């Protein structure tokens, strides 16, 4: 099946929209991570983790699925292909990393924070389990944001050219 120009534009628009939502989620995670790390209010700390957890179970998952599905469809239904170009392969690898960090990692790291904070309040920062979990969450947030930004750059510049067919 080959897409018409109109169909391709609609599919590309959906892909860009899902990608923008995914990037927006990542920015919200950065902001909430900063707020949670700098607040002295246990209610704010709890709220930040609760919101991050809610996002990890809703719009982060939906935007990830939407981006992956539309991206695969764009590759398969156009001349780009899934493995013809190095930049597409790089985006696929970064997407897998983001799925592990976002859909899986963010869920478990925020869930752990949500369960630890209510019992300890701000003293949670004295618990090694929480401190390690928070560090892992931060690594995930930063890697996801950088990976998403890199995918945008790859989509615009399309570096490295076409793979040589054997």
TrEMBL record:
Stated name of the protein: DUF2269 domain-containing protein
Keyword list, A-Z: Membrane, Transmembrane, Transmembrane helix
Entry's transmembrane regions: 12-35, 62-82, 94-117, 137-157
Source organism: Paenibacillus elgii
């Amino acid at each position: 099946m080959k897409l018409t120009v109109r169909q391709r534009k609609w599919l590309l628009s959906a892909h860009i929209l899902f990608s923008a939502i995914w990037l927006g989620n990542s920015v919200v995670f950065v902001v909430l991570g900063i707020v949670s790390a700098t607040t002295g209010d246990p209610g704010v700390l709890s709220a930040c983790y609760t919101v991050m957890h809610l996002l990890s179970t809703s719009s982060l998952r939906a935007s990830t699925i939407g981006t992956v599905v539309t991206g695969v469809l764009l590759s398969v239904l156009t001349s780009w292909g899934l493995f013809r170009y190095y930049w597409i392969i790089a985006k696929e690898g970064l997407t897998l990393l983001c799925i592990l960090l976002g859909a899986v990692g963010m869920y478990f790291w925020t869930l752990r924070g949500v369960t630890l904070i209510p019992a300890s309040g701000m003293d949670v920062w004295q618990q090694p389990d929480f401190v390690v979990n928070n560090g892992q969450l931060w690594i995930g947030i930063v890697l996801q944001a950088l990976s998403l930004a890199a995918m945008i750059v790859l989509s615009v510049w399309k570096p490295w050219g076409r793979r040589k067919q054997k």
